[in-house]
Amino acid sequence: MITLSKKVIVKNVYVLYFTGGFSLKRSWTKYAMVLTALLLLISSFFSPFMQSFASAADATKITIHYQPAPNDTKEWGLWVFPEGGEGKPYAFTGEDQFGKVAEVELPSTYDKVGFIVRTESWEKDGGDRFVSVENGEGEVWVKSGDEYTYTSPPDGEYRDLPKFDKVNVTLNYHRYDGDYSGWNIWTWPGDEKEGKQIEFTEDTNFGKRATYAINSGSGNLFDKIGFIVRHSTSDSDWENKDGGDRFITKVRKDGNVEVWIVQGQNRIYYDRAGVDITRKITKATMDTFNQITLETNVPFDSSKSLGDIEIDGAQIEKVIPYKEGGDAVTTKVKIITKQPLDVTKTYKVKQKGYGSADVVNGNVVRTKEFDEKYAYSGNDLGNTYSKKQTNFRVWAPTASAAKLVTYSSWNSKAVKEISMTKSEKGTWKAELKGNQDELIYTYKVKIGNSWSEAVDPYVRATTVNGDRGVVVDLAKTNPRKWSANKPKFKNPEDAIIYELHVRDLSSQKESGIKNKGKYLGVAEWNTKGPNGVKTGLSHIKDLGVTHVQFLPIYDYRTVDETKLNEPQFNWGYDPKNYNVPEGSYSTNPYNPKPRIIELKQMIQTLHDKQLRMVMDVVYNHVYAVSEHSFDKLVPGYYFRYKEDGTLSNGTGVGNDTASERKMVRKFIVDSVAYWAKEYHIDGFRFDLMGIHDTKTMNEARKKLDEIDPSIIVLGEGWDLGTELDAKLKANQKNAQDMKRIAHFNDGMRDGLKGSVFFDRDNGFVNGKQGQEKLIQQSIAAGIDYDRSTATYEDPDQVVTYVEAHDNHTLWDKLQLTNPADTEQTRKQMHKLASSIILTSQGMNFIHAGQEFMRTKGGDHNSYQSPDSVNQLDWKRRAVFSQEVDYMKGLIALRKQYSSFRMTSAQAIHQNLRFVDAPANVVGYTLNAKANKDKANEIMVIHNANKQAQTVHLPSNRTWRLLVDGEQAGTKTLRTVKGNTVNVSPLSTFVLVR
After folding, report:
1. 307 pLDDT more than 80
2. Known active-site residue 687
3. Which residue among the candidates 524, 598, 687, 873 is catalytic per the annotation?
4. CA–CA distance from 163 to each of 8, 31, 217, 221, 258 (Å)?
C-alpha cells in the first residue's frame, strides 16, 4: 500500500503582471501527472529544437508547443522568464503534429517558468503564461486565441508514447553522509495502489544501487514508475523519507531505465554526467558588516568546522547554522567575524575539502547600517556644469576604484579614462577644466575583481538610445519665450486630467499634424482632420480639460532610436535614463539637445494654451536589473530581494526598486524635483505607486510643495506583493498616511463597468444588479469606503475614472459584456459612465479618445501594439461628434459648479445627500448655495436601467434640466415642474434650481 496519494492537482492561480502600466491577468497553471513527459526521453537526447544555455547539472528544461491560427504566417516566437527573474527571447525551432515546438534550457533550477507567445514587434497571443517544473522539466501546449495553458495535448494525444507491462529499473542513490543503513525504496507501477519494498544491494563509486523489475499488478499497461526513498527501522517502515512521491517517466523503448538521485534533492537525473557530487562552496556572500554566509553543496558539521574555514584578511569568531536553532549538520552557515568587514574589499573564503570562493556583497548593502554609513545627502550627484569647469560625482560605495570615461561620439571607442578620487560617503569625484558642453561620458567602477561601465544615473542628456551620458549647458536648451508662468489652478479637485501618449495624438494620417509621433506634433495648433474637425492640441483645448497627462516621456528602453524609419511602438514603462527625455519623440535623437528643447517647447505650448502638464513616472522598476546603471554601480542595493536572495517581483516584471532605502528615496525625490524645476512640470503620476513606501511619497510631495504647491501628485495605489511591510506601502489602504497624494479609484472603475480582470464581468452601467451602494460611495470620493479597502480622508486623495491606457477601453469592454445590445445602447452606457465620473467628487481623469468612444479593436494590453491599434482615430472622432459634444458639456458643467469639486470630506458629508431611488438608479442632491454656486440646489440622477424611471425630486419647485441622455452642458434644455421627473433609460439627468 502507498502511504502518499498520487492525484492530479488543478489550481486556479491569479498572477500579477505589468507590461507597461498596471495589468492583472488570470492564468491557469495545471499540475497534472507526468504522463506527457515521456516524450522528453527522446527530445532531451536527440531534439534539434533544444536551445541550451548550461550543462545538464542545475538546469531547467521546458518544452513549449504552440498551434498558430489557420493560415497564420506571422513569425511567432517566445519571451521566456524564470519566475521572479528577467526574460529573454527564444525562437520556435521545430514542429510536430500539434504545431511549433521550442525546447529551452535555463541555467538554474526553477519551480515555475513564465513565457509569452509574441512576435518580434511584440504582438502577443495571450498574456503571461507559466510552466510548472518537476524534476527539472516542464511541458505545455498553447493554442492560438486560447487563454488556457495546457499540460497535455488539448485535442487528444497525438504522440506515440510507449507503455509497458514490465520495466527494468536501475536506481542509483548518493548520500552525502555515506550512511545508507535502513534506507530503501518503496515503488509502484503507474497509478496503481499497490507497491513493494526494494533494497539497495550494490555499492558503486556513486553510492548505492538498486536493480529491480516492476510489473503491473492489474494487468494494465503503464508509462511511469513511482517511488519514495524511505528510512525504515524495526519499529516503523516509514521512520523517515528523503523527498516525496517521485516518478520515473523516461523509459527506453526496450523497457529499461537507469536513474540517479541525490540526498536532499527531489530531482531525478537520467544522465550520470548531469550529477555533480563534488564537494564545493556554492556561494559566499557578505550579509552584514560582521557576517559572511557560506553555502555548500554537501552538508558538513558546523559545530566542528571553525578550524576548517578561514577568510583571507579577516578573523573568524564563530561558525553557526544559518537558521537559528537549526541542525548543526547543514549546507548553509553564518561565519561571524571578529572585525568589521570592508565592502570594497574582495575576501576569499576557504574550507577544508570544499575548496575556495570569492565573497561577494550580499545583503550587507541592504542593511540599515549600510545606509547609515554611506547615504550621501549632497546635491551634486551627476555632472555639475559651468563654462569654466564641470564636476562629476557618482555614488559607488562598494567600488574599490572608479573612472570617468570620455568619448568623441555615440559609437566611438573611449578617448580617455580618468581616475576618480574617493570622497565622502562612498562617492567618487572628478573635475574637468574648460567648457565641457556636449562632452560624452560614462563611469567605470571596479566591484570585486571586475570592472563595470554604466551611464550616470543622474545624467540629464544622453547619446542616441541612452547608452552614454552627455554634459549639457541646460541654458542652451530653453526654447523661445520659455517661461515659468503657469495656467491658473487652485485646488486639486479642479483637475480634469486627459491621459495621452505622445505618439498616439498625431500618428494617424488623418490627424493633419506634420510632426507625427513627436513632441513638436503635440505643440502644433489649428490642425484639422476629417470633416474639418479639430485635431491634436486644438481638440484637447476645445474639450475643456485642465491637465494633459503623458505616458512616459523619460528615456525608455524598448524603442530603437537608430531605427525610427521602422515601425516601433511602446508605452514606455521600461525605464532606462530617468532624467532624460525619450529620444524617439524628438526630431534628432543623435543630438542630445533637441529632445530637451522640443519637450520644453511642447510644455510651453501647453501652458500658453492654459493647459497644465502631468508626467507619468515609473520609479518602481527598471527594464532589466543586470543592464541598468543602478545595479552596475552598486550591485544589490537599489532593488528589493526575498529572503532566498531572488528579486522581489511585486511589479510582475521581474524587479521592484527599494524606495525605503535612503539613496533610492533620494534619487526619486531628486528626480521629480529636477523635472519640476527644469521642465516646469505641473504634476506627477506614479506608476505602481503601491510598490513605493509612504515616507518616500511624502518626501516627494514635500519637495514639490517647496517648488510649487499647485503641482498635483497621483498614482496607482494598488496593494502589491512586494517585500515591504504592509503598513509602509504607498497604497490605498494607507492613504491616510499620505496627505495630498491621490490614488486611482479602481472601486469606481470596476463598479461602473465590471472588473478589468474578467472580460465579461459587468458593472452598474452595463447590467450588474446591486451596485448602488458602491457607486454612491465612489461618487462621494470613497471617503466612506470600508477601511480595509481604502483610507481616503479627503477628495484630493482620489482619482475618479472609468478608463485608462491599461486594460480594455470602455467601448471595447462594453462590446464584450453586452454583445447582443445595439450600438446605440452601448453608446448610452458609455455616456452614462462618463457622466458619473464627471459629476463625482475628487480629481477627474479621462483617457484620450474616451470622448469619442475609443476602441483598440479589443486589444486589452496594447503596450507594444502597432500604431494602427494605438493611434487616436480622427475619422472616428468626426463620426462621433455628438458624443464629443456631450463630453464637452459635462466638462463645462463640472467647471461651472464647484459643488462637483468639494475640497474636504466634511463638505461632502454636509452638502451631498443621496435620495431614495428605484433599483439600479443612484440619485443625490448637492447644496449648491453652501458651495457658493449660482444656484440653490443641484439634483443628479443616474439611471442604469434600460427602461425610463420615475424619481422623486426633493422639492416641488421649478428645476432647470442641464443634462439628459442626449445633451449636456450649462444651458437649460427644458424646465421640470413638480416633485417627480421621468429619467430616460441609461441616462444621467442633472437638474438645477
Report:
1. yes
2. yes
3. 687
4. 20, 21, 15, 6, 17
Q: Dump the DSSP string for 272-341.
A: GGG------EEEEEEEETTEEEEEEEEEEEGGG-GGGEEETTB-EEEEEESSTT--SEEEEEEEEESS--
* Three-class secondary structure of residue 452 per DSSP: strand
Task: Please report, in angstroms and rounded to a whole number, the separation of the first and last CA atoms in the chain.
Answer: 83
**What phi and psi, each to the nearest 5 degrees, are found at residue 976?**
-125, 125
Please report the pLDDT score of residue 270 as a whole number: 92
Residue 930: what pLDDT?
A: 97
Rounded CA-CA distance 515/502 in Å is 11
Query: Which helix (H) or strand (E) is 25 found in, with range?
Result: strand 21-31
Query: Cα(103)–Cα(248) distance, rounded to whole angstroms?
Result: 20
Residue for grid cell 510507449: 162
> What cell numbers appear for 141 in the block?
501546449
For 376, left (φ over 0), alpha (ψ -120 to 50), or beta? beta
Report the pLDDT averaged over residues 498-503.
98
> What is the grid cell recorded at 819?
454583445
Q: Rounded to an integer, what distance in angstroms lies between the CA atom of residue 523 and that of residue 587?
A: 13
927-966 pLDDT, tens digit each? 999 999 999 999 999 999 999 999 999 999 999 999 999 9
| Pairing, β 938-943 against β 921-926 | antiparallel
The secondary structure element, H or E, covering residue 60 is strand 60-67
Integer-rounded Cα Rg, in Å, for the chain is 32
Q: What is the pLDDT of residues 575-589, one digit of tens each?
A: 999 999 999 999 999
Bridge partners of residue 25, in order along the sequence: 15
β-pair type (94-95, 100-106): antiparallel
Q: Give residue-wise pLDDT tens across range 163-187.
A: 999 999 999 999 988 899 999 999 9
7 band by pLDDT with thresholds 50, 70 and 90: very low
Q: CA 347, CA 339: separation in Å to the nearest integer?
A: 13
Grid cell at residue 631: 545595479
Q: Which three cell numbers stand for residue 296?
A: 555548500
Mean pLDDT of the chain: 92
d(CA 253, CA 393): 66
Rounded Cα distance, 117 and 105, in Å: 17
Provide the pLDDT confidence category of residue 41 given band limits of 50, 70 and 90: very low
C-beta neighbour count of 12 within 10 angstroms: 9
- Beta bridge pairs of residue 152: none
Residues 716, 746, 772, 812: which is the catalytic one? 716
Report how far residue 733's alpha carbon sits from residue 718's, in angstroms, rounded to the nearest whole number.
9
| Mean pLDDT on 316-326 | 94
Where does residue 505 fall: left (phi above 0), alpha (psi -120 to 50 degrees), or beta otherwise? alpha
Strand partners, 80: 88, 115
Q: Which of 532, 508, 533, 530 minimizes the C-alpha distance to 521?
A: 508
Cα 512 to chain centroid distance, Å, stands at 35
| Secondary structure letter of residue 424 according to DSSP | G
**Is 796 among the residues known to form the active site?**
no
Q: From 125, 124, 127, 132, select the one nearest 150 (Cα to Cα).
A: 132
Number of CB atoms found within 10 A of residue 63's CB: 23
At 59 the pLDDT is: 82
| pLDDT attached to residue 109 | 82
**Of 261-265, 594-598, 736-740, 936-940, where does mean pLDDT reach its minimum?**
261-265
- Poorest-confidence range of 217-231, 789-803, 898-912? 217-231
Place of cell 493647459: 611
